């Protein structure tokens, strides 16, 4: 407590918290992966993600100690979003931190502008825009714009006609773990070890998280796998997709097979952001997204207020 104000107590995400967190996210048809318990749970150590609840409002902190920020507050059905905005401002003041909201969706941005005209300044966070595709496009690959993807997929199916697609079950998980571990050994990108930790955390808690997965097996070995879940009744979210890059068409195959088998009954697929990586951006754009889950950073329009958290 500081000056009579109770400080928000942020804590780790535990499996027992899932029903409560889900309840907040179910209030609206959120499109971003930030609004999914599994995402927050699997990346909490890598990105310093924590949560707190107060008076029917959910607060999510990210950035660890390096660049602390909050997502815009999530108000429950009996709470007010504006109260959450004001409480978030107090949190930055209490901790002597510059004010920063990240992951502000277009809808939330409009709501903030409506409630607090002129108070915030918004900057598009293009590197974290999430790619949203029509499921039927990823399944059918119809038309000229998907010709190259269809060619890669057909080439794979002709060359590896004995490939086997299978849903990920408890007996397949060990094979997927082996594939993920070997992939880390042969790749040296920044953050790759954090990704392996996140993948194994999903496998450790497979049933409790309610995940779906698919794998492609070639010559007795899992060469590709994908993990996802329903984000809402219209959209599925792909958390992880891994494939042997030396096998032509394998990425196209696991993408196509997984969605066709597990998510053909939803309208959209969220394949997350490109993180500003040129190769990943090109790959995601080449699948012709239907739209983006846009994200913005928000600071106070008055620079002096930012330095004091809006004090």
UniProtKB/TrEMBL annotation:
Transmembrane segments: none
Domain Phosphatidylglycerol lysyltransferase C-terminal: 31-298
Superkingdom as given in the UniProt entry: Bacteria
Name listed for the protein in its UniProt record: Phosphatidylglycerol lysyltransferase C-terminal domain-containing protein
Organism from which the protein derives: Veillonella dispar ATCC 17748
Species lineage: Bacteria, Bacillati, Bacillota, Negativicutes, Veillonellales
């Amino acid at each position: 407590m500081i000056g009579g104000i109770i400080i928000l107590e942020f804590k780790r995400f535990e499996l027992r918290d899932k029903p409560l967190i889900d309840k907040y996210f179910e209030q609206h048809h959120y499109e971003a992966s930030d609004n999914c318990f599994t995402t927050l749970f699997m990346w909490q150590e890598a990105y310093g993600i924590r949560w707190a609840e107060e008076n029917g409002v959910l607060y999510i902190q990210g950035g660890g100690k390096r660049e602390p920020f909050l997502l815009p507050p999530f108000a429950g059905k009996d709470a007010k979003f504006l109260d959450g905005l004001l409480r978030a401002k107090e949190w930055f003041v209490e901790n002597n931190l510059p004010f920063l909201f990240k992951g502000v969706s277009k809808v939330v941005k409009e709501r903030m502008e409506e409630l607090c005209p002129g108070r915030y300044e918004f900057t598009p966070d293009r590197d974290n825009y999430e790619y949203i595709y029509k499921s039927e496009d990823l399944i059918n690959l119809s038309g000229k714009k998907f010709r190259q993807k269809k060619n890669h997929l057909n080439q794979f199916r002709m060359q590896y006609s004995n490939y086997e697609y299978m849903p990920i079950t408890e007996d397949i998980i060990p094979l997927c773990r082996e594939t993920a571990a070997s992939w880390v050994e042969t790749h040296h990108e920044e953050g790759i070890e954090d990704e392996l930790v996140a993948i194994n955390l999903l496998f450790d808690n497979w049933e409790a998280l309610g995940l779906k997965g698919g794998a492609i097996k070639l010559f007795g070995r899992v060469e590709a796998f994908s993990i996802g879940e329903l984000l809402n009744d219209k959209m599925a979210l792909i958390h992880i997709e891994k494939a042997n890059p030396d096998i032509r068409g394998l990425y196209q195959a696991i993408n196509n097979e997984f969605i066709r088998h597990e998510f053909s009954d939803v309208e959209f697929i969220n394949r997350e952001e490109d993180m500003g990586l040129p190769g990943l951006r090109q790959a995601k754009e080449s699948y012709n997204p239907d739209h983006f889950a846009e994200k913005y950073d928000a600071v106070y329009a008055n620079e002096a207020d930012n330095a004091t958290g809006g004090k």
